[in-house]
Amino acid sequence: MGSLVGHVAPGLAFFLLGFWHLFNHIKLHSVNPSSYTSIPWFPTPKSRHLELFLIMIATSISISMELFIGPARHQPFDPDGTIPSNHLHNFEHSSISMTFFTYAAFAILLDKVSPAAAYSLTQFIAAIAFAQQLLLFHFHSADHMGIEGQYHLLLQNVIFVSLTTTLMGIGFPKSFMVSFIRSISIFYQGVWLIVMGFMIWTPSMISKGCFLHFEDGHQVVNCSSNEALHRAKSLVNILFSWTLIAITVYSVAFYLVLAKLYGEKVVYSTLNKEEELEVKVKEESDDFEYQKGQKVFAVMDVER
Question: A Pfam family this protein belongs to (predicted)?
């Protein structure tokens, strides 16, 4: 994962998954606003479990790349069977993929064997996957002090939102906002991973005063001075803020478009001549009754 492709590929997977969930949750809520109930994954017309199968395929590819395809000897161990320091991050990344693979596999089994408990248990396993992801990124073996560490620190905030909203979804399945924020956070994870890939491993995009350096078997970004490092981290924070604003604008605009497209529509129609006549007669009748009542009150006042 410590490369451009290693960040863009999983980032694209999170991006597509988040977009898929965001689209479906908004559509489901727009069609049934009063009876909306969240679901952990969405079936498709041709294959009920297509989303989960794709997650299993993507995570299997990720595990293979980290442990068998990426390493120079096509296996991550030293000749004595131990894990070398430069392959620790490979095991960390593959462990994240394994947990998401477990989530998808159990989601399929629960849907087939125990539909009654499928929602809560599936959400629980998804929460474990996000918790595992947060744990491993927090104690990541890669650089914590440099630019890459700052990117990972900000990523942890987004993962925490995914974890929190997934747990909240177990107790509040009818809350659209919980599902909406969860979908946005997954979408945001994908966007931020893609941004990381390009900003860290594209030399022309690295902050002034910093450079790519080959260290412990993979490339890392080092800075020539503390001032350059501080500036680079500040730029990462600004980039994260701008990305947050952009995703907020996009998500709300996307909601407005889909709500208008799939939401309940009020149908306006013109009255025909018979209906217009009936309305006119009713208005004249009401006016006559009102005038009659006024005369009665006037007579009563005179008698007094």
Answer: DUF716
DSSP letter, residue 219 = E
SS3 state at 211:
strand
In angstroms, the CA 20 to CA 132 distance is: 23
- Please state, in angstroms and rounded to a whole number, the distance separating the CA atoms of residues 221 and 233: 12
Cβ 213 vs Cβ 148: under 8 Å: no
> Which residue in the block uniquely carries the two structure tokens 């009876």?
35
Quote the CA–CA distance of 17 and 10 in Å, as a whole number.
11
Structure tokens of 141? 């073996």
Residue 88: left if φ>0, alpha if ψ -120 to 50, beta else—which one?
alpha
Tokens (6 digits) for 232: 């680079």
| DSSP for residue 114 | -
With CA atoms as reference, report the closest residue to 132 among 171, 98, 84, 183. Answer: 98
- Residue whose pair of structure tokens reads 């600004």 in the numeric block: 238
In the structure, what pLDDT confidence band is assigned to residue 207 with cuts at 50, 70 and 90? very high
Instruction: Taking the CA atoms of 296, 297, 299 and 300 in sequence, report the sign of the dihedral they define.
Output: positive
pLDDT the model gives residue 71: 78
15 against 285, higher pLDDT: 15
Q: What is the pLDDT of residues 109-164, one digit of tens each?
A: 999 999 989 999 999 999 999 999 999 999 887 666 789 899 999 999 999 999 99
Q: Does residue 1 contact residue 66 with C-beta atoms inside 8 Å?
A: yes
Nearest-angstrom CA–CA distance, 62 and 261: 37
- How far, rounded to the nearest angstrom, does the alpha carbon of residue 189 sit from its chain's CA centroid? 7
Contact 27, 258 (CB under 8 A): yes
Per-residue confidence band for 217, with pLDDT thresholds at 50, 70 and 90:
low
